[in-house]
Amino acid sequence: MVQEQGDMIQRIDANTEDVVDNVEGAQRELLKYWSRVSGNRWLVAKMFGVLMTSDKNWPDGMAMSLTNASPVVSKTLENRASRISSSDYSELSRAADLSSAAYSGCDGSAFDVRITLQTNNLATNTEGFVGYSTSKQRISVVLRGSTTVQDILNDIDTTLVTPRLSGVNFPSGALVMTGVFTPWSSVHDQVVSEVRRLIGLYPSYTLESTGHSLGGSLTYLSYIALTQNFPAKSVTSNALAAFPIGNSKFANFGQSQKGLLRRGDNSLDGVPNMYTGLPYNYQHYGTASPTNCFPSETKALLMMS
């Protein structure tokens, strides 16, 4: 019995040492990432917001607070909306609605979209949904933005990789940051398969994709995935408050696709300017739309988050 107790104590000591090693390793990783982003005020603020929030529905609650506190925001944004066409305004507004639904984890339906697939890859924390809208006659792909520490680590994983996706012929030299490519690649085949199934059911429907922040940057890849895998379909995507994710060859490839990608950015949000300068020089693509053009306090906050 004494021998058994001695063996148990040794196992406890060994387990304790393993725990200490893991904690110290995690601390080193966090310090490493902090040193990489400490010069970026917008990303630091974003990290603080995520770390202070545990409820995945945080955009709804925070938007409600803004609605109660700032009744003049909506009027200001509606005035600024006159800078763009009514059709672009309507599309960006719709994209903001669907993007907010991705944050809230809607099940069954999201506004006019009937959800047929919830994407939720646990390894990469990639969430969103695929569905269809009978009123718009569209098949929709929507991706959630950052709400967790894992998302923030994806936001700042700027290591460039050569992208390879089924059905996509990337040009030689195209490079994409790992923190966006890995999350998208984890759901790419699943999303494309569901879109293909829905096209079989609704062959006349067009395709759309959207997302906000990290979800907007993922939209840079979902747009290419849709245009490449379904070249006969009309594709429209809206990347909201997205940061650029690749080099010039990747951006030029995205720009060359036969579809339409709009960028909806807020002038008060620094996230779209992340990685545009040295040492990264990543490039956006698509059609830039004037900023601060969303018709409600909820969308105003969503665009600034």
Set down the secondary structure blueprint.
Layout: H1 2-37, H2 41-51, H3 58-69, H4 73-80, H5 86-104, E1 109-110, E2 113-121, E3 126-133, E4 138-143, H6 149-155, E5 160-161, E6 176-177, H7 178-201, E7 206-212, H8 214-229, E8 235-240, H9 248-255, E9 260-264, E10 287-289, H10 297-304
Parallel strand pairs: 4-7, 7-8, 8-9, 9-10
Antiparallel strand pairs: 1-2, 2-3, 3-4, 5-6
Helix pairs in contact: 3-10, 7-8
The parts where pLDDT drops under 50 for at least 5 residues are 50-82, 293-305
Number of helices: 10
User: Which structural class best describes the helix and strand composition?
Assistant: alpha/beta
User: How much helix is in the residues?
Assistant: 40-55%
Lateral arrangement of strands in the main beta sheet: 1-2-3-4-7-8-9-10
Task: State Rg.
Answer: 21 Å
Describe the structure.
By secondary structure, the protein is of the alpha/beta class. The protein is 49% helix and 16% strand. It has ten helices and ten strands. It has helices at residues 2-37, 41-51, 58-69, 73-80, 86-104, 149-155, 178-201, 214-229, 248-255, 297-304; strands spanning 109-110, 113-121, 126-133, 138-143, 160-161, 176-177, 206-212, 235-240, 260-264, 287-289. The strands form two sheets. It has an eight-stranded mixed β-sheet with strand order 1-2-3-4-7-8-9-10, sandwiched between helices. A two-stranded antiparallel ribbon has the order 5-6. The radius of gyration is 21 Å and the shape is globular. It starts with a helix and ends with a helix. Mean pLDDT is 79; it is low at 50-82 and 293-305.
